[in-house]
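ugh ok fine here u go
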Amino acid sequence: MNNIMFFYKADKLKLAKIFVILNLIFFSSALSLKAQNAIGTNAIGTNAIGTNATGTNSIGTNATDSTTNSTQQSNTNATTKAQNDLKKQTRKSTGKVYSEDQQFKGALRKETALALAVAKARYVAMDDAARSLVLRPDVQAFANSTKNTAPLDPFALAYAVYTTEILPPELAGFSPELSVRAGVGIVPRYSAPNQNAVDFSVTTVLNNPELLFFTADSIKKENSLLKELISLSDAEIKNPTQANKKLEMTVRFKKLTDALSALELFREVLPNLQPTTWSNPEQVVETMKKAIQFDQDNPLILGTLGEALLVEGKSQDAIDYLSSAIKLDKTKARMFHMRGVAYMSLHLPALAIEDFSSALELNPNSPTYYNARGAAYLFQADYKNMCKDFYSACTFDSCQNYQWGIAQGYCKK
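structure:
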């Protein structure tokens, strides 16, 4: 559903046979990433890929040393079938396998240690990928183009371009100093016949900046989880929890690793995000409902579920989930906008105007939001405010609705 049509009956608004086609409702690629502070603050050319640029040390992992160690470990274990198979899969991308060890004892169980080791290995792999991606001419051209309204975060780009393949885990050491080893390789998220998968993935992401917006938000959340998980794990290894509090700490560890699993499910559906809609909304809904079972308090997941339900035409359900997301995070203009769209679909323009106004307060540079609020004013026959908003949208080169208003005699040139 790329466009929304509003039809107005003559006996209600005295607008017989008039309809306004608004190319504004769903997921416009014209959203200002800068205004939403969606993408990171490190710009290419200003140490974006320099030492510690992607925040690797912030989670307790040294990218350069870990990458070197990972390569050495993969060479040492290259005889194992799983690693050889993974190398074949990843040869077209980085050709590397990244490994991380994590000790476990006490309340820090093997399953939790494995989840942490995988997350750290993935982090190191993406850091390495980011350092390569930033050297590509097409990435540098995008970073310096007028299409890019915010500094390009290479780490978000890496997570958007690549996904990870995970090796079977290995145990290392001897009791009580047991560790679990996780290995990952990275492969492009997107592919097309007769095209280089990495090139195609980079092009796909750069042509849809909202992929970077969503990915950057997921990374921010993941970094926070990893910091807490690493801190707790280090403390548990040094001083295991007493028996009477072991269950409580185990539950705490599980909650953190569940939240990481939810983020991975979230990133799985991002290839369905198109510039103007979600493809395969049924799949998005199904996957996000699984993610919510792991983490009920992630506004990214709740909001995405709400958007997918809206695409399916389930407006009230969409409002419920979007409202839950907004309650947790009131800084995302997109969420207010999408809830406003849902209200409009239920013929509730006053509530829609309130949400569109909130979206514009957060992002005053979006023609999509002005057009949406203008449509809500049109529904109320408030032509004065309608024309103001359609004119504002036109100042951002979205003039279709303003020109329609002039043609109908509602707006002045």
